[in-house]
What we know:
The chain is α+β, with helices and mostly antiparallel strands. The chain has 10 helices and 9 strands.
Amino acid sequence: MSENDDDGRYRAPALDKGLDMIELLAAREEGMTLKDISTALNRSPTELYRMLDRLARRGYVARQGDNYALTMKLFLLAHLRPPIRRLVGQAMPVMRRFTNAAEQACHLVKYDRGDLVVIAQVEAPGYWGVTIRVGAQIGLVNSGSGHVILAFASPEERALMFEEHETMPYEVAPADLDKRLADVVQHGYEAMQSQQTPTVWNLSVPIMGPNGTVLAALTCPFVRRLENPDAPDRDRVLALLRAAGDELSLTSATN
Length: 255
């Protein structure tokens, strides 16, 4: 919070109310009634109703019966930022080729001011696979994507990430995190059992930009396909993923 925020010289109460509601709804998987929202924010329903109605009319909030829920509009607006739009546009054809060859799903994860956010994903071909929805937030210290982004960040960037990041429920860092990050740098990838889903291995590689900066992580939640004994095994999938990461890094570095 800035000094000007502290002394109240530049307060905007109406804007604050709208942002409070957006942040509250963003933290809830299910919708909330007006009464629930007013109780959570310690404000009267009358005080919030008109603001909530405007958010709904502008498409930031959707009304379902008596419940209000956040839409994807803010996420879509974020994707209008040229760097993200360009990265996703470059990544999607490469990701599709990977999923077809590996018979596995994959997703692209970017760090943004304290959060790791899935900005693109491609489902596995066939009837089933493990996917993470676009817009989902994942752990920084207990995920393959997080380890890759931390490992290839500069010491200053890594310190800032730890400072900005708010620990998610059940997010516990491994006791040997520093050694893990060093191993990721040495090998060029992370391969670890998922801390969220049994039998899943998180295979993650960095997408590097100009001057050696890490732009994102490309991750495959690998599951062994028992119905197809000829499907690529984990080592083969990792090789395909590393090739896809190298291709995207080369493209990002030259554009």
